[in-house]
Amino acid sequence: MRGVYVVVLVFSWFFFGHLSEGFSQSAKGAEEEVVTDKDSTSNQKNKYKELLEKGTWSNGLFNVIRQKGDYFFEVSDSLMGVDLLLVNKISSVPYALNGHGLNKGMAYESKMIRFYKDTALNKVWVKTINPRVSSPANDAITLSVKENFVESVIESFDIEAKNEDSTTVVIKVNKIFDGNRKSFTDLLASTGLGGGIQTDLSKIEDIKAFPENIVVKSLLTTSVSEGGPALPLSIGITLNIVLLPKNPMMPRYADKRIGYFDKPISYFSDEQHEIENREMITRWRLEPKEEDEEKYLSGELVEPKQPIIYYIDPSTPPQWRTYIQQGVLDWNEAFEEAGFKHAVQAKEVTDEEDFDIDDVRYSVITYAASAQKNAMGPSIIDPRSGEIIEADIMWWHNVMKAVHMWMRVQTGTIDPKARANKFSDAHMGEAIRFVSSHEVGHTFGLTHNMGASHSYPVDSLRSPSFTSHMSGTAPSIMDYARYNYVAQPGDHVTEITPEIGIYDKYAIHWGYRWLGLSDPHDETAQLNDWIRAHENDPLYFYGPQQPDIIDPRSQSEDLGDDAVKASMYGLQNLKKIVPNILSWAAEVDQDYYQAAKLYKGVIDQWVTYNGHVVSNLGGVYINNTVAGDKKESYVPVPALKQREAVNYLIENGVKPQHWLFTPDLIHKVYAVRDAPDGERYYSPVSLMRTYQTNVMYAMVKTDRLARIIDNQVLVKGGEEVFTAHDIYDPLFEAVFQKTEKGKDLDMYDRMTQKNYVDVLTVDRLELLKKTKENALTDDHREFKNIHYTYIPRVSDIGSIQHAELQRILKLLKKKRKSGDRDTRAHYEDLISRIEFNLKN
Q1: What is the pLDDT of residue 367?
Q2: Distance between CA atoms of 449 and 478, rounded to whole angstroms?
Q3: According to the model, what pLDDT value does residue 769 have?
Q4: Which pick of 160, 365, 548, 618 has the fewest CB atoms within 10 Å?
Q5: How confident is the model at residue 683 (pLDDT cuts 50, 70, 90)?
Q6: At what angle do helices 747-773 and 684-700 cross, to 10 degrees?
C-alpha cells in the first residue's frame, strides 16, 4: 500500500499543483502516519513559539532570530515580491591580499533580488533579475517582454516556522552566509581568487537588522597555492540586503557629449518599428521639498529633501580629515548651479547610533592601511533607475606617495615647498583636498573628462592671472590634469593645483537640475538645449578616457592644447631638476634611496611626455556630433602638428638622452622602483636602451600606421597629407646620419641603430605572423564610435616596412668597410639580421 500511495501523491501533484486540505487520509502501513498540511502548519507555529521563547530577536526589515548557532529570517508577506538589492563588501583582509590591492571597504558584487513564498512546496524562493527592459503595462508586447526577460532562481529555503496568522514565515539562512552556498555572495569568483571556501574554517560573525536593510558579517576562509605551501586566507565580508524605493527615481538619459556613468535600458512598445535603447545616468536623487518646488522652479536656491552625506572613516589620521572634508564640501558651489544649497555634507563619525562603516545606509570615505598608491570613488546603484543609493570612496594610505612624486617632479622648480623628501602637513593637505574632490566627483556619477585640459592654451598656463582666474590647470577636476608642469621659474604662477572648474559645474547642472517632469523622454529637449548652448565653447568640451589613445586631445596627465609645446616646457623643468636631485633628496648619514626615487620620478615624467606627443601620430579628433551642430565627426590631426611630434620624439626620445641617463649623479644614484619583493635599482644605460626602443616602437607600431594610411582619405583637398614616410624618413636620417658620412659609431650610436632595426624586424615578423594565421580575417581596433580594420596580407604597412629594411640594408652594404673595428662588426651584424628577416 505504501507504494500505491506514493504513485497517487505524485499523480495528484502533477495535475493539480498541490494536494487539497481534504486529502488527508493515507494508507496505514507499518503503523506509519502521514503529516497533513494542517499538522505541518501547527508544527511551524509551535516552532515559531519556541523561537520566541528561546531565540534572540532583532527587529528590522527582516526580523533576525538567533538560536544557538543558527540564524533565521522572519519574512513578512508584505516583503514577498518586493525589490531588494544585495550588496557585498570586503570588511577585513590578511596581509597577502592587502599587498594585492584588496582592502576593507571595497564592494565586489551586487544584484537585485525578490523573495517569493510557495505554500504548496513549503518553501521560500529567491530570484534575481536584471531590470534592463521596460514596456507600457497595457501594450500587447508587454506579455512577451515578461516571458522573455524572466527572473532566475538563485536560492530556496524550507519554511521552518510561521507566525500565528501565517502572515510571516521563518527561514534558516546559515547556508548562504557561512560559505556553503554562492547564491548571495560569491567572494572568490568576484575577486578573482578562485578556489573554494573551507566551510569548516568559516562562520557567520553577526547579523544586524535595521528598518530598511540587513547587515550580515561573515568570515570566509580559503587557501591559495602558487607553487609552494598552501597560503591560508581568511577574509571578512559584509553583505547588505537593502530595501529599494517603492517608487524608483525617474531616470535621466545619458548624452555622449557629457560625461556620466550610465546603465543601459531598452524600451519595448506596440508603436515601435525597432527597440529604443537608452542609457540612464547614475546620480543621487536630489529633489526640492514639496513646499519649495515653486521657489526652486522660479530659480531660487533651496535645500534638497535629502542631502548627500559622506562620513569620514574614524581610522583616518586626524591631520587629514579636514582636508578630505573640504574636498567634499567644495562641490556645494557646483550643486548651486543645479539649484540646491547645502546639497553635500561631510561628517566625522561621532555617536551615530549603530554606525557601521560597511552599512549601506552610510556613504563612507574609507581609509585603508595599505601600500596601494591610489584612491577611487565607486557607488552602489539602483539598477532600475540609475539612482546612487550609497558611495564607497576608497582612500589608500599610500596615495600620498604618488601625490608627493607628482608635485615634486611637476612643480619642484617653481615651488620650493615641493622639493622636500617630506612635505609639510599643510602642503600635503592641499593635495589631499584635490584628490578628495576628484574621487567624490566620481560618486556623483561623473566620469573622467580627459579632454578638459586641452581647452587651455599652453602659454596661458604660464600666466599668473589666467591660472588664478581659471582655477588651476583645467576646467574640470575630473581630468587627470595633475599639476602645472608648464609654468617656468620666474613666471610667478601660484595656482598650480587642479580645482573644481567650469565644466564640473556645468555637468552637475545638467545631471541634477530638477525639472519636475514624470517621463524621462520629456526632458531630452531641455537637456539637449543645455548642451547646445555651450557646444562651441572649448571650456565645456568632454573627452572620454580611452583604452588606446586615438584622439590625442583626451589623454591622462597632459596639459594644454599643444602636447609638443607643453612637453618642451616640461622638459625644461626636468632638466633643471636633474642637477638638483642630490641637493633636494640626499640626506646626511642616509643612503641615496630618496634621491633614487626622485631620479626615477623624473624619468617616468619624461616617458609621460613622450606618450603625450606620440599620440598625435595617426591621431583623429573624434567629436560626438549631432545633426545641426555644423561640426565634423572625424578630423585627422593636422600634418604640421604630426611632423612637429616626429621631430620632438626624435630629438627627445630616439636620440640618446645623456642629460637624463648619464648625468654626473649616476656615480651615486641609480633609479629605483619599489616592488613587492623589494627595491629594484636599474642601470641608467639599460634604461636608456629600453625607453629608446619603446619610443621607436610607439612611432611605427602597426595600429598607428594603419590609422595614418586610413586618415589620408579624410584630408580635405588642399590640406597637407601626413604619410608613413613622414615618420620613416626623419628616423632614417637621424639614426643613420653618421653611417652615411662614414664616421665611427660610439656605443650609443650602435645601440640606437640596433634598436631601430630590431623594432622594424620584430614588428614585421608580428605582421607576417598575422598574415599567415589570419589571411582571410581582419584585425581591428575600436574606440567609441570609431572602428579601424586592416587585413594584414593586403595592407601597405608590410610593404613600407619591407622597403625601409631594404633601404637600411643597401646603406649598410655600401658602408660595411667604413669606420673602426667595432663599427664594422656592428654593420655585419645588422646586415645578417636584416637579410635573415627578409628571407622569412
Answers
A1: 95
A2: 5
A3: 52
A4: 548
A5: very high
A6: 40
pLDDT digits (tens, 9 = 90+) for 703-727: 899 999 989 888 888 889 999 999 9
Whole-angstrom distance, CA of residue 660 vs CA of residue 559 = 22
Beta bridge pairs of residue 231? 224
CA 78 to chain centre: 38
CA–CA gap between residue 105 and residue 394 (Å, rounded): 7
Strand partners, 265: 278
Do 234 and 265 touch, CB atoms closer than 8 A?
A: no
DSSP letters spanning 309-372: EEEE-TTS-HHHHHHHHHHHHTTHHHHHHTTBSS-EEEEE-SS-TT--TT-TTSEEEEEE-SS-
Model pLDDT, residue 722 = 97
Q: Is 34 a residue whose pLDDT tops 60?
A: no
Query: Mapping DSSP to helix (H, G, I), strand (E, B) and coil, where does residue 174 land?
Result: helix
Sole residue written with cell 566551510: 199
Q: Which residues pair with 123 in a beta bridge?
A: 118, 158
**Cβ 750 vs Cβ 822: under 8 Å:** yes
CB-count exposure of residue 653 (10 Å: 0-12, 13-18, 19+): buried
Query: By the 8 A CB rule, do 501 and 470 touch?
Result: yes
| Helix H or strand E segment including 236 | strand 231-243
**Collapsed DSSP state (helix, strand, coil) of residue 483:** coil
Amino acid at 99: G
The three-state secondary structure class of 171 is strand
Amino acid identity of residue 27, one-letter, is A
Please report where in the chains the cell 548651486 appears, as a residue.
336
C-alpha cell at 718: 588642399
CA-only gyration radius of the chain, Å: 33
Query: What pLDDT was estimated at residue 502?
Result: 97
For the beta carbon of residue 604, count every other beta carbon within 10 angstroms. 13
Q: What is the pLDDT of residues 58-117, one digit of tens each?
A: 999 999 999 999 999 999 999 999 999 999 999 999 998 987 889 999 999 999 999 999
Residue linked to cell 628571407? 839
Q: What average pLDDT score do residues 507-526 get?
A: 97
| Short-list 241, 210, 209, CA closest to 113 | 241
Contact between 19 and 32 (Cβ < 8 Å): no
Say if residue 414 is exposed, middle or buried (CB neighbours under 10 Å; 0-12, 13-18, 19+). buried
Beta-bridge partners for 281: 262
Strand pairing class (363-368; 387-396): parallel
* The three grid cell numbers given for residue 773, joined into one nine-digit string: 594565421
Q: What is the DSSP letter of 422?
A: S
Which grid cell sits at 325? 572634508
**Residue 556 one-letter amino acid:** S
**Gap between the terminal Cα atoms of the chain:** 83
Per DSSP, the chain holds a count of helices (H) and strands (E) of 26, 26
3-state SS, residue 66: strand
* HSE of 666, CA atoms in CB hemisphere, 13 A: 16
DSSP string, 208-221: EEETTEEEEEEEEE
DSSP letters, 785-802, are: TEEEEE-GGG-HHHHHHH
Angle at alpha carbon of residue 582, lines to 578 and 583, rounded to 5°: 105
User: Do residues 432 and 407 touch, judged by C-beta distance below 8 A?
Assistant: no
Q: CA-CA distance, 429 to 444, in Å (whole number)?
A: 23
Helical (H) or strand (E) element with 698 = helix 684-700
Strand, coil or helix: 695: helix
CB 530, CB 505: distance < 8 Å: no
pTM: 0.91
Q: Does residue 776 carry a pLDDT above 60?
A: no
Alpha-carbon gap, residue 505 to 561, rounded angstroms: 22
Distance CA 313, CA 324 (A): 11
In order, the DSSP letters of 542-592 are -----SS-SSTTS-TT--SS-HHHHHHHHHHHHHHHGGGHHHHH--TTS-S
Q: What per-residue confidence (pLDDT) applies to 358?
A: 83
Q: Is 246 exposed, middle or buried (0-12, 13-18, 19+ CB in 10 A)?
A: exposed
Based on the number of CB atoms within 10 Å of its own CB, is 591 exposed (0-12), middle (13-18) or buried (19 or more)? exposed
